[in-house]
Design goal:
Blueprint lengths: L17 H18 L9 H7 L7 E4 L2 E4 L8 E4 L19 H11 L3 E7 H5 L22 H14 L3 E8 L16 H14 L6 E5 L19 H15 L4 E5 L32 E4 L22 H14 L6 E2 L9 H17 L2 E4 L22 H7 L59 E11 L2 E10 L7 E5 L3 E8 L1 E6 L3 E6 L11 E10 L9 E2 L1
């Protein structure tokens, strides 16, 4: 059965603990005493601990366990923050007043230690950010005019400052849609490997980046260790993994599963790893492979195990057969690369409780989908304001989280060249987003309005991002005369709430209209001066070409 995943229609052990070092020290002291040689007093246990090498930050595998550089077991606790794989080519949420550090500090405070960061090859090659960004709110990072690759650098640097690790996730070849295979006609395997080698080299000296998720959700024709070279994902992952490790031998190579397994069963896209036992991925550099299935509840697709009379008690056996056995048998560690739910049904709540218990019992690593609230059926870990935590979801995840203190770390000082009028700039209309994330899609073209005789401005309006239940509008006001204030209004028969605004203060008449008045750095206007501001609204859909009233 084809799963039709809705998220797209949406080892050498080095035991050098304090005890072993202390024993060695004691033995050495005894030998010195027997030989009559004068020697230092026996080492104390705490001095032995001090003698242990400092952790490098790199991770490696040891059978079914991930370990740090001092060989302590390490559990990756991640969530995905998407956007760099979409036509926006920038992490989502930065269109409002949210800053990169605020988002990362929030993730850290929830109890995660890692961010899974999806990207597309198309965005890696892009010369500019395509989506809306509040450059004023994020002025400390000097993002205006930068490439998506520069944004990636910034997110990684700020993750490090916030005590978080990064997993790079090649989510899509192009930004428009996912691919069931690791290559397309536009992005061949050679490009896939070349981009991975570039990224591995780029962050080679930074252990903040701990892993390379080679390709998101192989599906359809993808096979494992069988079929032709054009479909054999196990062989491709071997080639890709070896290429990455040739550039940076310290990275974990994260290998997702397939949809249609060799035993005739089908599961989630990326979720099938039943063939690993017979045909594991073996790389030239050992102790690097981590297998990463995806798993979701019935609200995304009614897999046959959800109708089993034994549900939800049958779930652990389903997971054991498809991927859990890999870690349990010590073949390699497992990182559950995506799982998530809006918890809107009793079935979903049962699934969530079961999978959290399974992860906790087996001490498995994971990456929750997603931090973003604009993720289709699952929603996110924050509400539409991108700040308020979804307490019910975090309560469900509590057994596997390690909550940390709230608050942000110091952010870089703004560059003196940052422009105070650099709120989200008008951008080219975004290309359609996959329904996997219900991300922003193209809407209306700018709606110019000639100012009436007494108006202080002329204005244009563009819905730069929209999704089911909301949109972001960018307003560009051009001064016609000196004025201490200005405003723009438009009709919206579906609007219910102002979520965020920047450069303007906005009010609504519910299901009637929106009025935004210049505020803060954009409060005043001069002849010929352009002010770019924006607002995020809750509305069933963005209005098409609304008539603007400028004052």
């Amino acid at each position: 059965m084809r799963s039709n995943h809705p998220l797209d229609t949406a080892r050498v052990r080095l035991r050098r603990g304090a005890a072993s070092v202390a024993v060695t020290a004691a033995a050495l002291a005894g030998l010195l005493a027997v030989s009559g040689c004068a020697g230092p007093a026996p080492f104390a246990a705490d001095r032995a601990v001090e003698a242990a090498p400092a952790a490098t930050g790199w991770l490696h595998t040891d059978g079914g366990v991930i370990r740090d550089s001092n060989n302590n077991p390490y559990t990756i606790k991640a969530t995905s923050w998407f956007g760099l794989e979409t036509p926006d080519c920038v992490p989502h949420g930065l269109w409002g007043t949210l800053t990169i550090d605020e988002a990362l500090a929030n993730i850290k405070s929830m109890g995660f230690n890692t961010v899974r960061l999806p990207f597309s090859n198309e965005c890696l090659a892009a010369t500019s950010i395509k989506g809306s960004v509040n450059y004023w709110a994020n002025r400390a990072y000097n993002l205006e005019g930068k490439r998506p690759l520069d944004v990636l650098d910034t997110v990684i640097a700020r993750a490090k400052a916030n005590g978080l690790k990064i997993i790079l996730d090649r989510h899509r070849p192009s930004s428009a849609d996912q691919s069931p295979l690791w290559y397309t006609s536009a992005v061949p395997e050679t490009k896939w490997i070349a981009d991975w080698k570039m990224l591995a080299s780029r962050y080679k000296a930074d252990p903040t980046v701990i892993g390379a998720d080679l390709h998101n959700e192989p599906a359809g024709a993808a096979t494992w260790g069988r079929g032709t070279a054009a479909t054999d994902w196990q062989a491709a992952a071997t080639r890709g993994g070896n290429a990455v490790l040739a550039s940076n031998p310290n990275l974990l190579i994260i290998v997702e599963g397939i949809e249609n397994q060799g035993n005739g069963t089908a599961t989630w896209w990326g979720g099938g790893l039943a063939d690993v036992g017979a045909k594991p991925v073996v790389l030239n550099t050992p102790h690097r492979v981590v297998y990463s299935p995806h798993d979701y509840p019935a609200s995304l697709y009614a897999q046959k195990w959800f109708s089993d009379p034994a549900y939800p008690a049958n779930l652990p056996s389903v997971w054991d057969k498809n991927w859990g056995y890999i870690q349990k048998q010590g073949i390699a560690p497992v990182l559950l690369g995506e799982f998530g739910s809006a918890l809107a049904t009793e079935s979903d709540k049962q699934w969530m409780a079961s999978i959290v218990s399974y992860l906790a019992t087996n001490k498995m690593s994971y990456a929750y989908w997603s931090f973003n609230p604009n993720s289709g059926v699952t929603g996110g870990l924050v509400k539409a304001d991108w700040r308020t935590q979804e307490t019910a979801k975090l309560a469900a995840l509590a057994p596997i989280l390690t909550p940390g203190p709230a608050g942000t770390v110091p952010v870089p000082s703004p560059s003196p060249t940052a422009s105070v009028t650099a709120a989200p700039s008008p951008t080219a209309p975004a290309s359609p987003k996959p329904t996997a994330t219900t991300s922003p899609k193209p809407t209306s073209t700018p709606s110019p309005t000639a100012a009436s005789g007494g108006a202080s401005i002329s204005a244009t309006w563009k819905a730069t991002s929209s999704w089911n239940g909301g949109y972001v509008a960018t307003i560009e006001a051009t001064g016609r005369r000196i004025a201490a204030s200005w405003s723009v209004s438009w009709r919206d028969p579906n609007v219910t709430k102002v979520v965020n605004s920047w450069g303007v203060h906005c009010t609504i008449v519910p299901k009637v209209s929106v009025t935004c008045t210049g505020s803060d750095w954009a409060a005043t206007i001069l002849p010929g001066l352009k002010r770019t501001a924006g607002v995020q609204l809750e509305s069933l859909k963005a209005p098409a070409n609304p008539v603007l009233t400028a004052k």
